[in-house]
Write a structure and sequence with these properties.
Elements: E1 5-10, E2 14-19, E3 24-28, E4 36-40, E5 48-53, E6 59-64, E7 69-75, E8 78-85, E9 96-102, E10 108-116, E11 122-126, E12 132-137, E13 144-149, E14 155-160, E15 165-169, E16 174-179, E17 186-191, E18 197-202, E19 207-211, E20 217-221, E21 231-233, E22 240-242
Antiparallel strand pairs: 1-2, 2-3, 3-4, 5-6, 6-7, 7-8, 9-10, 10-11, 11-12, 13-14, 14-15, 15-16, 17-18, 18-19, 19-20, 21-22
């Protein structure tokens, strides 16, 4: 990249990188020297600030500084543009999350993408049904800085500049919990793999753990001496990584 890198997304066999330039680069992790496998030229005219890849590695979304969101699909090892989300108006900084729900024969029945907008709203799209927006959640105008979807796509969680943490039910379209405990900007939220716990962290330098069903704070994890920007659970939910 010729300018600052703003986002990375990892698939089972590739690393996708985005920067202030208009191109998106894809590197192969199947070979020892991580060669450049593909460049998506002019993906976003004003540069790219965020990427979100599905866990199966066949889809990713990119958000540009113009507020636009584009969807990409891997076909026979090459990435191709699938479509645009019209009127996404995705903010920077932001976070996006991409999850896919499968049925018994491994056919995608739901493919969710969630992102914050410049006015603090939380938007959720179903990308199987033609990129249709299925939910728009109001957060009283507090700037959204982090977002996550539960693995089954049932819940959306968001973290905000004023320290607010919210959990929304995508099925009912209602606020499930407004969570207490963090009074400074929240820069990362992450559901556990089973969707029973939510971790939230940011400028308060602690990680709050919440029970998704009850909304109760069940733990406070300390140890960081500076802001926390990232959270990630192990596949079993036994361990939580923070940075």
């Amino acid at each position: 990249h010729i300018t600052d890198i703003f986002s990375l997304a990892v698939t089972p066999h590739q690393i996708i990188s985005a920067s202030g330039s208009s191109n998106i680069k894809i590197y192969s992790t199947s070979e020892p020297d991580f060669p450049l496998a593909q460049t998506l030229d002019a993906a976003h005219k004003l540069g790219v600030h965020h990427l979100a890849a599905s866990k199966d590695g066949h889809h990713f979304a990119s958000a540009g500084f113009a507020g636009d969101v584009k969807l990409w699909r891997s076909e026979e090892g090459q990435w191709m543009k699938k479509g645009d989300i019209v009127g996404a108006n995705v903010s920077f900084p932001t976070s996006m999350r991409h999850v896919i729900e499968y049925d018994e024969i491994q056919m995608a029945t739901k493919r969710y993408l969630a992102a914050t907008s410049v006015d603090g709203r939380i938007n959720v799209w179903d990308n199987v049904g033609g990129c249709k927006k299925i939910r728009e959640f109001e957060t009283k105008g507090s700037f959204g800085m982090a977002i996550d979807l539960s693995v089954d796509g049932r819940y959306t969680a968001s973290g905000h500049e004023n320290g607010g943490v919210y959990i929304f039910n995508n099925d009912t379209g209602r606020l499930l919990h407004s969570l207490p405990g963090l009074i400074k900007a929240v820069r990362a939220v992450a559901f556990s793999p089973a969707g029973k716990l939510l971790a939230a962290a940011g400028d308060a330098r602690v990680i709050g753990l919440y029970d998704v069903a009850s909304g109760e704070q069940v733990a406070n994890l300390s140890g960081h001496g500076a802001w926390i920007f990232s959270l990630d659970w192990s596949d079993t939910g036994e361990f939580l990584l923070s940075g």
